[in-house]
Recover the amino acids of this structure.
């Protein structure tokens, strides 16, 4: 946590009596000094008192987590989050300062069962409004239900009559879309924007302070929104233009940006840090999208960048004081964990419960479940969702999910008889882990809650494609080489095992790849043979973004069984009795299929998942033989490029030497 020093100014006079001096003159001088000092102190105090101050609380990436939930935090099982507790904190802050600014950084939807009524109830944004949120913006997951879904949500919210947060986003490129002619989906969103009142920015009066809040949608957010039909302007340029407009047309004291762009460890690629440096007139950037928790704000010039993490596990609180030059100084900053020691606001929880009451009948009934139904009892310590992205090795959470895909497909009522060779689960599709104890339908849904199918029913469906053995080897290399630059592309598989050495040359890190025969045996891959691969629809739609990270060097072309390339992944959605087989439902079925080992009538997660099974082996050897053995075609390409660069450098050096020699020779002749 960032620590702030409080500096106290005080004055005292030193001296001692000198009886041999004129005491009257001394007294008069002392009185004059004290009077002058007191006057100075009065002015300073008045100046401090008159400085404008702003209190701000913030959230982002709450992902439909309206209710409290149990997960793993810092390797311990904890009950965290919940809007009823968050609202308690907000109201406590507003009791201290009724003019507190409440802002949200987008991705308020997609993450729990409440998202299943996203279109009809708009529960997430209405609950933000219920808590007094002043402003929010759009995140990439607000587009998960496609243009129609987003439009329906905005219209439902507007028609509810509830108090709603203002929605701001300044870089939607309506001009380009209108010039080309709006598609049906774009027109739906345009009309819904008008109905809701979406704008580039808003100006809010908080006590004696006028605050402009501008919103922006980031580049990586757009890359993570494959169903988004909108076009967007460059985020930085759009914010620059909007800030200029604010300066020209508004008389404001502060400019805040709610950004769904994020921060990254590599500062050069950290979008909101680049925004802070490029648009120095911004006083504060609330940075969403990357689920970052910043224990201390990032500071560039006079601009602060803040984030409090995902799912409402924390609430961010800060205070800022205006300086003499008109800019703002952050005088306090705290990330407040939302834990069980915070009381739940009863009225807020009641409002949430009313939304949740519709979930069983409106959504889960079609799958034969109820939200509180126990699927299995768990005594296994599963990896966390963060582990899947941050620790590059096999994880049991990825194992159980990928195994579930195979089970569900091969045990479907109308299984086509073609076995699944490989099932793949990318880390970016996983939203939460499984704590010990009862695993319910709600918890399974929350662990894999993204998206919507072609049928318009919430939940991404499974798809079936074919890849060659050579492409499966490439998939392993994508995980080994590319996922360090795009951690949401970490791959967890059932049926495909591989070994990689992180110390080897990029694009040549994988040293062994093979299929598991289901009994621990090994099946060698044949380069030209087609193998059946199952994944979820979102993973198929995001495939191009992943391969782009290798500049097309590592590419996969998913195919039909006859080898014809697939153009639309919705054509290969797996169905059962005419209904899409949803990824989360596949996991639920698998959980329910486990053996009841304790005889209580409820399945138990098997001990199999308490250990690793050589699906992703990390060989951390730095032995020179291990580093150069089994080179692939990319090794030759990379070595060739390096050799050319070395030769080019040598040529340049020799050329410079020759030029210098000629210059010296001419000088000597003179």
């Amino acid at each position: 946590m960032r620590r702030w020093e409080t500096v106290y100014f005080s004055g005292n006079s030193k001296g001692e009596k000198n009886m041999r001096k004129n005491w009257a003159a001394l007294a008069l001088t002392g009185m004059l000094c004290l009077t002058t000092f007191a006057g100075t102190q009065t002015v300073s105090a008045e100046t401090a008192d008159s400085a404008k101050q702003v209190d701000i609380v913030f959230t982002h990436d709450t992902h439909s987590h309206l209710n409290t939930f149990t997960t793993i935090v810092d390797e311990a099982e904890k009950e965290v989050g919940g809007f009823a507790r968050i609202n308690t904190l907000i109201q406590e802050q507003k009791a201290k300062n009724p003019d507190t600014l409440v802002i949200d950084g987008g991705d308020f939807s997609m993450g729990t069962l409440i998202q299943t009524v996203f279109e009809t109830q708009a529960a997430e944004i209405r609950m933000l409004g219920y808590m007094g949120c002043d402003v929010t913006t759009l995140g990439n997951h607000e587009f998960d239900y496609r243009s129609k879904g987003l439009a329906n949500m905005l219209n439902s919210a507007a028609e509810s009559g509830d108090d709603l947060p203002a929605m701001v986003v300044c870089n939607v490129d309506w001009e380009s879309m209108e010039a080309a002619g709006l598609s049906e989906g774009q027109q739906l969103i345009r009309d819904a924007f008008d109905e809701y009142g979406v704008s580039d920015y808003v100006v809010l009066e908080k006590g004696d302070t006028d605050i402009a809040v501008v919103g922006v949608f980031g580049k990586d957010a757009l890359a993570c929104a494959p169903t988004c039909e909108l076009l967007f302007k460059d985020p930085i340029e759009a914010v620059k233009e909007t800030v200029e407009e604010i300066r020209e047309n508004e008389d404001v004291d502060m400019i805040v940006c709610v950004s769904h762009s994020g921060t990254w460890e590599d500062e050069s690629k950290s979008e909101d840090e680049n925004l802070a440096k490029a648009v120095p007139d911004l006083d504060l950037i609330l940075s969403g999208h990357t689920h970052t928790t910043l224990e201390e704000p990032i500071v560039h010039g006079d601009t602060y960048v803040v984030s409090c993490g995902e799912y409402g596990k924390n609430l961010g609180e800060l205070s800022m004081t205006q300086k003499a030059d008109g800019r703002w100084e952050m005088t306090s900053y705290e990330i407040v964990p939302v834990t069980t020691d915070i009381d739940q606001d009863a009225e807020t929880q009641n409002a949430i419960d009313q939304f949740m009451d519709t979930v069983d009948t409106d959504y889960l009934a079609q799958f034969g479940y109820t939200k509180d139904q126990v699927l299995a009892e768990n005594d296994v310590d599963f990896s966390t969702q963060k582990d899947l992205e941050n620790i590059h090795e096999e994880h049991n959470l990825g194992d159980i999910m990928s195994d579930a895909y195979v089970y569900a497909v091969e045990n479907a009522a109308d299984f086509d008889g073609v076995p699944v060779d490989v099932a793949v689960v990318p880390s970016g599709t996983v939203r939460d882990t499984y704590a010990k104890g009862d695993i319910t339908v709600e918890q399974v849904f929350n662990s894999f809650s993204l998206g919507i199918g072609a049928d318009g029913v919430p939940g991404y469906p499974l798809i079936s494609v074919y890849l060659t053995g050579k492409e499966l080897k490439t998939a392993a290399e994508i995980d080994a080489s590319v996922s360090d630059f795009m951690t949401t592309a970490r791959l967890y598989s059932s049926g495909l095992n591989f070994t990689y050495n992180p110390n080897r040359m990029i694009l040549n890190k994988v040293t062994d790849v093979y299929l598991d025969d289901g009994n621990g045996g090994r099946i060698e891959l044949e380069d030209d043979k087609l193998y059946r691969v199952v994944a979820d629809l979102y993973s198929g739609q995001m495939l191009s973004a992943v391969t782009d990270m290798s500049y097309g060097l590592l590419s996969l072309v998913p195919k039909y069984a006859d080898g014809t390339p697939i153009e639309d992944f919705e054509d290969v959605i797996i169905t059962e009795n005419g209904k899409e087989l949803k990824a989360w439902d596949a996991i639920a079925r698998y959980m329910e299929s486990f053996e009841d080992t304790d005889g209580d009538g409820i399945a138990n997660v098997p001990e199999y998942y308490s250990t690793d099974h050589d699906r992703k082996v990390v060989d951390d050897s730095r032995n020179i033989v291990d580093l150069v053995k089994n080179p692939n075609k990319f090794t030759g390409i990379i070595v060739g490029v390096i050799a050319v660069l070395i030769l080019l450098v040598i040529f340049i050096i020799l050329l410079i030497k020759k030029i210098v020699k000629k210059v010296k020779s001419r000088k000597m002749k003179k």
